[in-house]
Amino acid sequence: MTPAARVQAAIEVLDLVIEAARSNGAPADRLIADWFRPRRFAGSGDRRAVRELAYRAIRICSEIPENGRAAMLQVAAQDEQVAALFDGSRHAPEPIEAGEPVAQSGIAPRWLMERLAASGVAETEAAALLDRAPLDIRVNTLRAGRLSLPEGAERTVAANGWRYPPETRIEQSDAYKSGAIEVQDTGSQLTCEAVAAVPGETVIDLCAGAGGKTLALAAAMENTGSLIACDTDRPRLSRLAPRAERAGASCIETILLNPGREMEALERFTGKADAVLVDAPCSGTGTWRRNPEARWRLTERQLARYVETQARLLDIAADLVRPGGRLVFVTCSLLDEEGASQAEGFLARHADWQGQAPTLAAGTPRGVGLRLSPHCDGTDGFFVARFALL
Ligand SMILES: C[S@@+](CC[C@H](N)C(=O)[O-])C[C@H]1O[C@@H](n2cnc3c(N)ncnc32)[C@H](O)[C@@H]1O
């Protein structure tokens, strides 16, 4: 593909990403992969270049652009070399006309910028939410005997964490294939450390998803004890079993929950768990490095719904913990309503619980918890709070 044809391809891909953002469709990564599937003529260099152009446009535009061309025109407005490729030649975008709509540039929609500012996130810190994320891995101590780390890694502050440059294709390595390493952001690893799970405990991962954190908890527990992984999303939870097998994590029981009737499946654990992790559904403002188009999708109503669900899940979790046990609340968001304020609300509703500042190797205190951010900690953005039942 010529450089101009790559720009036109990125415009077409962006049209799909924009449509999906409006209709809550597939994520950008999947759409880009699907777009290339029938286009066998595109080599790996073309794919990389189109993907980079599309993501550059997504990162640059604060709101959902009118269309792919308007998004790419914002890139062109900031880069003469890209602008010169709008030359109308074969497979190239049509020349730029005066007065054509150009997408709005910026970090995020205005309402979200206001919420971030109200949560103490200054503009430079907000901008870093759109940086490219490095590739972080966790050494899986359950399989560490087989470990031979691929070259180029640097230690992180997480107990078993290492970092590679963003483009590293770790999935091809023997260490990955043998289950000796897991791809997991450093911030995510640290939130698992906040649970401080030890062998022999009963630990509930209430919102386990596909088990990113469950696997770290299983390793901390050395496969000894009882680790209950729950979620309401069947497809997501069903991805946990093959991952656990690869990782050699054998102490996990999965439980599919009915949304709104979670306790029906959890009754037998009432007052029994040593620790419950609530890695709650949230706006994901801390993961824009990986899904920058997520900020086009979020609405104030959705955010309000997340906040409500988080409070409900915290209350459910509180019923599961034994006296003297602990509850760890995590969101991958920098918004206080999903972090410090949510934690404060929990303590206001539950007089028998006490906030315990988590001691982690990174993070900044925020309310009763800690906040991790790309700008300050080089991790995805997270809020983590720890509560103890008196
Ligand atoms: C932030 S994600 C969890 C990510 C996962 N812990 C990990 O580390 O990969 C939040 C999860 O909460 C789940 N969820 C939403 N509502 C729930 C509910 N009522 N009870 C339990 N899980 C729920 C979602 O399906 C989603 O998988």
Automatic annotation (TrEMBL):
Family, per the entry?
Belongs to the class I-like SAM-binding methyltransferase superfamily. RsmB/NOP family.
List the PROSITE patterns hit by this protein, alphabetically: SAM_MT_RSMB_NOP (PS51686)
Q: What is this protein called?
A: MFS transporter
Keyword hit for Methyltransferase: yes
Q: Which residues form the active site?
A: C332 (nucleophile)
Output the superkingdom of the source species: Bacteria
Keyword Transferase belongs to the record: yes
- Which Gene3D superfamilies does this one have? Vaccinia Virus protein VP39
Q: Which UniProt keywords apply?
A: Methyltransferase, RNA-binding, S-adenosyl-L-methionine, Transferase
* Domain SAM-dependent MTase RsmB/NOP-type: from-to ranges: 102-390
Q: Quick one: which residues bind S-adenosyl-L-methionine?
A: D231, D279
Q: Which Pfam families match?
A: Methyltr_RsmB-F
InterPro entries xref list: MeTrfase_RsmB-F_NOP2_cat, MeTrfase_RsmB-F_NOP2_dom, RCMT, SAM-dependent_MTases_sf
